[in-house]
Amino acid sequence: MTTSSELRARARTTLHGKWTEPVLLALVYFIVFSVIGILERIPLIGWVASLVLTGPLMLGLYGYFQDLVRERNPSIGGLFSGFNRFSEAFILNLLVGIFTFLWMLLFIIPGIIAAIRYSQAFFILRDNPGIGGLEAIRRSKEMMAGNKGRYFVFCLSYLGWAILGLIPLGIGLLWVVPYFYTGLAHFYEDLNRANYVEPPLQPGLNNYQY
């Protein structure tokens, strides 16, 4: 399995010469979620707005960096592409929040493990237009079996960068966020390759190698 340092190196390679747009996307991301944070102060209306907007925005965020890693030249507008699958993204975000909260009732550690278990769900949902939120969660749990510790270590490896990003009034986070999410996308791609199974030949087809 690929190590955390190798995944970070891949992220830097992906971002080399392309930092401007991901940094601008991070800025838009911070602005949007700051507005959502302000709305949350409004009783009921703010809570509903946060619940409705977060899922599609997260799907768009994950999708942007997924496309970046796959060299599909995404645009900043991709942050809002999750609204094209609003219902699935909304349900996924709601279910992840509910399940994680229920595990947190047992103790903090089970809640963290649950969050890690569901960590690939947005990538999976975007990769599979025909599935819903619950199926994306189920597939994420399968994909993360035996990989939860590696994911935790990978995320922990960005802690120093996050602290450095906070020092100059948080401005450095505009670079840390793209670096982190690009690494996450590479983590997902690595899991995809590890879990890939060659599809069986269709009946009646010759077993020729092309």
Automatic annotation (TrEMBL):
Note the InterPro entries from the entry: DUF975
Keywords, comma-separated and alphabetical:
Membrane, Transmembrane, Transmembrane helix
Q: Which domain of life is it from?
A: Bacteria
What start-end ranges are recorded for coiled-coil regions in this protein?
none
Provide the transmembrane region boundaries: 22-39, 44-65, 90-116, 151-181
Q: What is this protein called?
A: DUF975 family protein
Specify the taxonomic lineage: Bacteria, Bacillati, Bacillota, Bacilli, Bacillales
